[in-house]
From TrEMBL:
PANTHER family: ALKALI-SENSITIVE LINKAGE PROTEIN 1, ASL1-LIKE GLYCOSYL HYDROLASE CATALYTIC DOMAIN-CONTAINING PROTEIN. The keyword Signal applies. Residues 123-150 are annotated as: Disordered. This is WSC domain-containing protein. The lineage of its organism: Eukaryota, Fungi, Dikarya, Ascomycota, Pezizomycotina. Keywords: Signal. One of its GO terms (biological process) is fungal-type cell wall polysaccharide metabolic process. GO terms for cellular component: fungal-type cell wall. It comes from Botrytis porri. Residues 1-18 form the signal peptide. Residues 131-142 have a biased composition (Low complexity). PROSITE patterns: WSC. Residues 35-127 form the WSC domain.
Length: 389
């Protein structure tokens, strides 16, 4: 979210699309669900869905076919309705719950079993599982999580600001939304990013990957503002297959950097959230080798009604991991507030991030004047001092 400091309003005219997953593709490199258990018949309502994400399945509907498709997309709950609809989610919401009856419509693909009914879901819950494929390369050191986001678009035209954090033992890696380091000190591991969808394979991108340990994919393809890469989920998946997938086994590959706390607004795909955008992307990229998820988080340091900004990010990061079942890189996060408020936020959040095994790396936004640097850009701000300590 490079230099984006306002609440965005999405006005995309793009058409929302539902992902289609073929039944033969249900085994993915990302997640394999081991088992599903029936939890019975549940209420549903078109004005307040219990499970909010529809998935298309090739062929006639059965409960098993829907479960397999939901497994491929990484969801925890599966439901069938009206004999021929598949719905999924990670919780049953909008006041829906167990129903005494009503799941009385035979599945279109197997009339010996019931697939819900009018406003009723035949519902199943995943029994959990583990990845079918280990990461291409070993995980980063747990002691080297903390990174920097910097940019060469400054008065120096290079990584001068980023290099102001070299020598601090907590800072181990960095990126600048591109695949050129622009002079980042060699003591900080540079992680190249393919920011957006290229027209052809860029030889400079290929060269950057050759010396990298990990790479980052598209920047905020789930959003539509000027400095996001703004793609439909299926376009992003096609881009991964064309320009990123070929490096599997050579480097660790990150998923697209998505704004995970955009859970109740539009995305670049249309009238669904960034979280749903991510599920659609994974459904269209079910054979892609993705070693870790990349998420973003932006919110007030001190939300209204006395709520805790630190609690909010902890909840979002936890939810991302529980949903995606992948190691997490928080490649951008920031709370909106004064320097002192951001410093207080970091004092609470950093110890928690450092103790979560599934949080591999994180990077606070960003090494710029008025952020982790003072307004003049000559020294670390209060928040910057907390970040490197």
């Amino acid at each position: 979210m490079l230099f984006f400091q306002a609440i965005f309003v999405v006005t995309s005219a793009l058409t929302a699309t539902c992902m289609t997953i073929n039944s033969q593709d249900v085994q993915t490199d990302i997640e394999k669900r081991q088992s599903w258990k029936s939890i019975g018949c549940y209420t549903d309502n078109v004005s307040g869905r219990g499970l909010t994400t529809p998935i298309s399945v090739s062929g006639a509907i059965t409960n098993e076919g829907c479960q397999a498709s939901f497994s491929a997309a990484g969801f925890s709950y599966a439901g069938t309705e009206y004999g021929g609809e598949c719905w999924c989610g990670n919780s049953i919401i909008n006041g829906n719950g167990p129903a005494a009856d009503g799941c009385n419509m035979a599945c279109k693909g197997n009339n010996a079993e019931m697939c819900g009914g009018p406003n009723r879901l035949t519902t199943f819950q995943s029994g959990g599982g583990s990845s079918t494929t280990p990461p291409s390369n070993p995980n980063p050191s747990k002691s080297g999580k903390r990174g920097i986001t910097y940019d060469s678009n400054n008065v120096h035209g290079d990584s001068t600001y980023g290099n102001m954090l070299k020598g601090y033992s907590k800072i181990t890696w960095g990126y600048d939304w591109g695949f050129k380091s622009n002079g980042l000190d060699s003591s900080i591991e540079f992680v190249p990013m393919l920011w957006g969808l290229p027209k052809i394979m860029d030889s400079n991108w290929v060269s950057a990957v050759q010396t990298a340990k990990s790479i980052l994919g598209f920047n905020e393809p789930d959003l539509t503002y000027e400095q996001s890469s703004n793609m439909l989920p299926e376009a992003a998946a096609a881009g991964y297959k064309s320009y990123i997938e070929q490096f599997k086994g050579q480097v660790r590959i990150g998923g697209p950097g998505v704004l995970w706390n955009n859970w109740n607004s539009w995305s670049s795909g249309g009238s669904y959230s960034s979280r749903t955008w991510t599920q659609y992307f994974l459904g269209n990229c079910s054979t892609c080798a993705i070693d870790f998820a990349a998420i973003h988080y932006y919110q007030d340091c001190e939300p209204s009604r006395g709520q805790s900004g630190s609690d909010w990010i902890i909840s979002n990061v936890t939810h991302a991991h529980e949903t995606l079942k992948l190691p997490i890189w928080i490649t951008e996060f920031q709370c909106y507030g004064s320097d002192a408020q951001q410093a207080a936020f970091l004092r609470k959040v950093l110890p928690w991030l450092d103790t979560q095994d599934y949080v591999e790396r994180y990077s606070y936004f960003g090494v710029f004047p008025g952020f982790l640097l003072d307004v003049a850009g000559t020294k670390l701000s209060e928040a910057g001092m907390v970040y490197v300590s």
